[in-house]
Design goal:
The complex is a heterodimer of chains A (about 260) and B (about 270). Chain A is α+β, with helices and mostly antiparallel strands and about 260 residues long. In chain A, about 35% of the residues lie in helices and about 15% in strands. The longest helix of chain A is centred in the C-terminal third of the chain and has 15 residues, at about 200-215. The radius of gyration of chain A is 21 Å and the shape is elongated. The N and C termini of chain A lie far apart (about 60 Å). Chain B is an all-alpha fold. The chains are: A alpha+beta (about 260), B mainly alpha (about 270). The interface between A and B is large, with 66 and 58 residues.
């Protein structure tokens, strides 16, 4: 059953990267509980435009929880109160009539605010650029199942590959560490046969690029709770292991 | 791979490259994951010491002579191979190095995280982070300061007017019978247990010791170790205050040494 609720929003407004930011309070009345969180913001923005004010800038793309573009700190929780859910998949039925909602952008030194709720996440692209891929000669597509992969390994690699790169792990981390993102991106390739050739070079390059931008993991486990794909921190431990191996192994002997 | 890096523009890095690149394997310590690895390994060594130290101190409950003999046994370790107290000193030096590295890695990683982190002016909710994990940067320095006091009090005897070298029973009962000192020991050892609770679990992650088969045991181990250390270490100030450990200001070791000296005179 759909119902309508009235909300009070406290939204971070910032005119530009170097501008001073502040919270602005908006009344969001008559919001359908079937609306998603982003649709709620769309409604608020339409009203702002009608009133001749600047709409709230936030990022979104697919709105089905698979692209990683959206991401807001909602009441001090990355992607809001519902576990394993991106902001776009969070619905207003998770809130009650009369709720006050604080909405902030992701915060980390390497996630500078561009405007309002949009942040610059290119630091994460730099980590991917350092080794989050496999090098193959393109040509005719290889036969399917040419490379055997055990089912369990494929499942685990897929759990890691579920990472949509939204940055919630960094946002939720008290150290602003990007360990979960990096570990997921390292491990989904390191676990598979196709990723073996570049395994040690990849781990080393991606971890060191991460360290240039983000903080140091202290194993709080906040990232795992914030992750819309519920990626476990086990991948972080395996990446730590791979990193030390990469530093110790003789590449001429292990490839 | 370098080609791809140059194509991505990103905000300026938070952490600059080390000015001097140390030779391998010291270069591993110049990375954050390497430092965490060192922190985990030194943590294992320090934890091992703390467990053995607590168990050894239980000799206090056997009596003044027994704990004195235990202390002498530690000094006699390895005397068939090395001069007396050498093995003890080798272990002490190892511990000092582990302690120094543990503190240095914690300090530099904290600095890195503080530089990378930005506060949420709207406040934030913690879901997974617990009291122990969030207070590591407080419990650590508390333990460090306490350790200094502890050594000055019971090893060097600076703060204890009745200090008798080589008589742990006497020194412990004289020192911990003061209420402020007993409170200090209780607070510091509680901080130690809290530190161990997160440290023990965290160590497995940092060292990459992770397998779904036994992962659930790591929390139990952390809670168990922290609990054992807490109960064992708190028992000493509490039982001194309760009068269970009390030598009425007499030092048995001093009397023994006097007796031995008198016998020599005869």
């Amino acid at each position: 059953m759909s119902a309508e609720i009235n909300l009070t929003l406290k939204v971070w407004r910032q005119a530009g990267p170097n501008a001073e930011g502040r919270f602005v309070t908006y009344e969001a009345n008559g919001i359908s509980t079937d609306a998603s969180f982003l649709e709620m913001l769309d409604i608020v923005n339409e009203r702002l435009i009608e009133a001749g004010e600047e709409p709230i800038v936030f990022e979104s793309d697919c709105r089905e929880g698979i692209c990683g573009t959206c991401g807001l700190m909602i009441n001090g929780q990355a992607h809001g109160p519902q576990k394993g859910t991106a902001t776009c998949q969070l619905h207003m039925r998770s809130f009650s009539d009369g709720d006050h909602i604080v909405i902030e952008p992701w915060r980390a030194t390497s996630f500078p605010v561009l405007r309002d709720l949009a942040v610059d996440r290119r630091a994460m692209d730099a980590i991917i650029g350092a080794g989050g891929y496999i090098s193959v000669n393109t040509g005719a597509a290889a036969d399917a199942n040419l490379t055997p992969v055990p089912k369990e390994t494929a499942d685990t690699a897929f759990d890691a590959a579920a990472c949509i790169g939204c940055g919630a792990c960094v946002a939720a981390c008290p150290n602003s560490a990007a360990q979960l993102f990096t570990a997921a991106k390292v491990q989904h390739l390191n676990l598979l046969p196709q990723g073996q050739a570049e395994r040690w070079a990849r781990t080393e390059a991606m971890v060191e690029t991460m360290e240039a931008f983000f903080g140091s993991c202290t194993n709080h486990g906040e990232c795992e709770e914030a992750c819309p794909k519920e990626i476990p921190i086990d991948f972080i431990a395996w990446t730590n292991r791979d990193y030390i191996k990469a530093k110790v192994k003789n590449r001429k002997l292990v490839g | 791979m370098a080609q791809a890096i140059t194509r991505v523009s990103a905000p300026p890095p938070v952490r600059s490259e080390p000015k001097i690149k140390l030779p391998w394997p010291l270069s591993i310590y110049q990375t954050a994951v390497g430092k965490k690895w060192v922190m985990g390994l030194t943590g294992v060594a320090l934890l091992g010491f703390i467990v053995v130290h607590m168990i050894g101190n239980l000799h206090l409950y056997e009596g003044p002579l027994e704990i004195h003999e235990y202390a002498e046994t530690l000094r006699d370790l390895g005397t068939k191979l090395l001069p007396r107290t050498w093995l003890l000193w080798i272990m002490r030096i190892g511990l000092i190095i582990a302690f120094a590295l543990h503190i240095h890695s914690a300090y530099s990683l904290s600095r890195m995280s503080i530089a990378a982190d930005q506060r949420y002016p709207g406040g934030r909710n913690y879901i997974a982070a617990n009291f122990a994990s969030r207070t590591m940067r407080w419990t650590g320095p508390i333990i460090g300061l306490y350790l200094f006091y502890h050594l000055a009090d019971l090893t060097w005897g600076w703060f204890n007017p009745d200090f008798v070298r080589g008589d742990p029973y006497h020194n412990v009962s004289e020192s911990l019978s003061s209420i402020p000192v007993a409170i200090l020991y209780i607070v510091a050892n509680t901080a130690l247990a809290v530190h161990i609770f997160h440290g023990t679990w965290s160590m497995f992650q940092s060292l990459g010791v992770n397998s779904p088969r036994y992962n659930h045991l790591r929390r139990y181990l952390a809670a168990g170790l922290a609990g054992i250390i807490l109960v064992g270490n708190l028992s000493f100030p509490i039982f001194v205050q309760a009068g269970v450990i009390d030598d009425d200001g007499r030092s048995i070791v001093e009397e023994l040494q006097h007796g031995a000296a008198e016998e020599e005179d005869h």
